[in-house]
Amino acid sequence: MLQRPRRNRKSEVIRQMVKETHLTAANLIFPLFIVDGQNQKTEVSSMPGIYRYSIDNLLREVESCMNLGLKSFDLFPYIEESLKDKYASESYREGSLYLRAIAEVKRNFPEACVITDVAMDPYNSDGHDGIVENGVILNDETLEVLGKMALAHARMGADIIAPSDMMDGRIGYIRQVLDDNDFQHVSLMSYCAKYASAFYGPFRDALGSAPKAGDKKTYQMDPANQREALIEASLDEQEGADFLMVKPALAYLDVIKLLKDHTDLPIAAYNVSGEYSMIKAAAQKGWLDEQRTIAEVLTSIRRAGATAILSYHSKEVLLNKWI
Ligand code: PBG
């Protein structure tokens, strides 16, 4: 045998030398859940190890992440039912929980990268990512709300705005609103190929944001479709996105790879709540080696072509030196 691939695997030093995929703190984005009040830190029951923080505790959590070199955060709010309405007006109200959280994180940690979520669902009494009229999700009317929300985030100091709603035309619309208001420097990370996925279940528990009626299939993509992601990608590129996101990640590695091969923009992948909870549940039962499973999953998402990974594992992998 002239070719013996095992020779390049024979020692740790050689294995490290030929390693093709690297994962560092710089590639990781940590999603954080926030809730109103003081001194709150409540575990999400379907996401062991993940909490909703009031702003005071959020700042402590951000600080401990920063000390680990984890410096990018994506914030999501839990909103009281009484503050929700059909137009998600709480989302851009001055002094709202979310807007205060952005400003506080940026004031205390100016070097952190704060990514903000633009979508109506946490604030919408219908639980959808758009305005609902007679069971229909209105596209163009929703864009106006998204524009107001994005502008409010930019004013609070958001570094990157991430629209997760899947309305048509929202990247171009939001880019225009930001540019018209002198926020040319604020980036857009588009949830570009976002699928109507069962893996979002635990996240909707965390936010109390499940749709009150119907599902999200008229705006989120069909899990059966791959080529359609290319249409979304080319529109987002033309409309001015700075990052393209694929979500979920693990069941959609082919889509990450496809977009990587078709765009020069950086690809982000969202290792979503259900992907996190599956591993936690299996590890708690002793069915999987938690550390190795998590490292393998995150590495596979990078290998598929993701530049950045949004993951609930971000902090624990650095804290425990699992990567
Ligand atoms: C909705 C949104 C969802 C997630 C992020 N933004 C859920 C949904 O579309 O219903 C899910 C993230 C996760 O599961 O971790 N705007």
UniProtKB/TrEMBL annotation:
It catalyses: 2 5-aminolevulinate = porphobilinogen + 2 H2O + H(+). PROSITE patterns: D_ALA_DEHYDRATASE. It is an enzyme of class 4 (lyase). SMART domains: ALAD. It comes from the Bacteria. The keyword Metal-binding applies. GO terms for biological process: protoporphyrinogen IX biosynthetic process. Pfam families: ALAD. The active site is at K194 (schiff-base intermediate with substrate), K247 (schiff-base intermediate with substrate). Mg(2+) binds at E232. Pathway: Porphyrin-containing compound metabolism; protoporphyrin-IX biosynthesis; coproporphyrinogen-III from 5-aminolevulinate: step 1/4. The keyword Glycoprotein does not apply. One of its GO terms (cellular component) is cytosol. GO terms for molecular function: porphobilinogen synthase activity; zinc ion binding. InterPro entries: ALAD (IPR001731), ALAD_AS (IPR030656), Aldolase_TIM (IPR013785). Its EC number is 4.2.1.24. PANTHER family: DELTA-AMINOLEVULINIC ACID DEHYDRATASE. Belongs to the ALAD family. Homooctamer. This is Delta-aminolevulinic acid dehydratase. It comes from Arcticibacter pallidicorallinus.
